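pls design
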């Protein structure tokens, strides 16, 4: 939780300084859908199905051709799988903090095509019970690859977030989340 607090303070401090001193600062809101799977190391787990989820958050973008984009998002995702003839459907509600470095591939005023990547930090807000009563971890780390387009004040982003750490010590589950979101830039 300390990490999330630090990230939020960093976004606020960076935003207030850059908004006053540079035109290369953007702040906005975004929302969209997620499709997820939980990759695992168990052969006994079958019938895995990703479920649709939701994301909403805020973002800041600092820089021009090369930029830094921290975000704070609330995301939901779930998965369904069968283990020992029993079906499980863990539903995750997380705070998500991607810290991306990006590059503007095309910058034609109101039309910007960009790509970014970086670490992705998660804090699970809801306890989940998995098979054999092994709990899911509260925090996890991953990486995110993002491609987006800005059309004036509107943004459209697609991203893939790949889990690096296991969500559950007994099953080796790692999240893989594909997201599509639309946003609006206030600055």
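designed seq:
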């Amino acid at each position: 939780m300390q990490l999330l607090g630090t990230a939020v303070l960093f976004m606020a401090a960076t935003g207030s300084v850059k908004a006053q001193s540079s035109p290369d600062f953007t702040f906005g809101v975004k929302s969209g859908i997620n499709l997820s799977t939980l990759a695992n190391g168990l052969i006994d787990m079958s019938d895995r199905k990703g479920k649709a989820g939701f994301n909403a958050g805020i973002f800041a973008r600092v820089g021009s051709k090369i930029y830094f984009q921290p975000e704070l998002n609330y995301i939901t995702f779930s998965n369904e799988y069968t283990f020992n003839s029993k079906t499980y459907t863990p539903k995750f509600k997380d705070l998500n903090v991607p810290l991306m470095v990006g590059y503007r591939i095309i910058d034609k005023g109101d039309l910007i095509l960009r790509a970014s990547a970086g670490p992705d930090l998660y804090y699970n807000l809801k306890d989940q019970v998995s098979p054999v009563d092994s709990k899911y971890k509260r925090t996890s780390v991953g990486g995110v690859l993002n491609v987006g387009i800005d059309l004036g004040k509107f943004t459209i982003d697609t991203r893939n977030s790949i889990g690096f750490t296991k969500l559950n010590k007994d099953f080796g589950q790692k999240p893989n989340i594909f997201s599509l979101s639309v946003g609006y830039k206030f600055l």
